[in-house]
Write a sequence for this structure.
């Protein structure tokens, strides 16, 4: 009996030790994934995008009456560390151990670094509307010249569901923004949830056209440094089970972050809209 108890205890200790080691390995891999994707930099860029968006919202909704106070409100909503923490909790939990390992195997390479560098550089450069316009002209030129690289870019967008997922995310963000306006008292109470959804659904073609233009412009500029072979490897990863789970985790996590941000923006904007109406 003593030997049986000793064996049982030893087995339990072994299982606990193994579980702890596995957890430590996963945490180390997740930390490495965070580093090679350079997510801190991405969320810093998103915070800068928020500053620009604040100016647009102010001009559209309350005629430049927000000033420094409004921009401070938006900066608090777009705090990069807070957004990153919210995203990371959802994103990391959505990835299996296999997906984490296989995503590292792809991105922790010279090609992976090249892709990440190019995407971040392009995202930051798009803060300048002139750069985004120039990227759009690149796409137009590729269409005219029937550039075969454009075919591969479109395939990449399709494999990774970049259009539909971004359209859905944009519509969800718009719905959340309207909910924030309602909560803040800036929208007539007679407007029902069904009214909001119907209005957003009617705008779907606009969301889709804007998304297609932005995505293709982004890809055309970001992936210029890639060879056809490198882009094919990128597409191939997206077709794998791990690539799909990685991509789905990205979109679902960003979608939740953008919904939270949009609702908070709507609520904050309502304060200025209602004070302007008084």
């Amino acid at each position: 009996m003593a030997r049986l108890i000793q064996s049982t205890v030893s087995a339990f200790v072994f299982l606990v030790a193994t579980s702890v080691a596995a957890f430590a390995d996963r945490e180390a891999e997740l930390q490495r994934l965070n580093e090679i994707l350079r997510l801190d930099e991405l969320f810093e860029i998103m915070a800068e995008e928020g500053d620009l968006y604040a100016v647009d919202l102010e001009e559209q909704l309350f005629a430049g009456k927000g000033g420094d106070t409004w921009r401070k409100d938006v900066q608090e909503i777009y705090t990069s560390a807070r957004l990153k923490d919210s995203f990371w909790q959802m994103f990391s939990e959505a990835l299996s151990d296999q997906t984490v390992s296989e995503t590292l195997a792809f991105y922790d390479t010279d090609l992976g670094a090249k892709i990440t560098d190019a995407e971040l550089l392009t995202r930051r450069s798009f803060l300048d509307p002139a750069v985004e316009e120039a990227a759009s002209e690149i796409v137009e030129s590729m269409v005219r010249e029937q550039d075969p690289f454009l075919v591969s870019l479109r395939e990449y967008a399709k494999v990774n569901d970049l259009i539909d997922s971004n359209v859905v995310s944009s519509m969800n963000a718009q719905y959340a923004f309207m909910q924030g306006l309602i909560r803040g008292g800036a929208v007539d109470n007679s407007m029902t949830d069904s009214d909001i959804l119907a209005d957003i659904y009617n705008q779907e073609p606009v969301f889709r056209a804007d998304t297609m233009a932005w995505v293709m412009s982004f890809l055309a500029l970001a992936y210029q440094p890639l060879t056809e072979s490198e882009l094919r490897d990128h597409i191939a990863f997206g077709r794998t089970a791990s690539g799909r789970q990685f991509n789905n985790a990205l979109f679902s996590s960003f979608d939740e972050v953008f919904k939270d941000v949009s609702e908070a923006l709507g609520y904050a904007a309502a304060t200025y809209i209602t004070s302007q109406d008084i």
Remarks:
- The chain has 13 helices and no strands.
- Residues 41-277 form one domain.
- The first helix runs from residue 2 to 37.
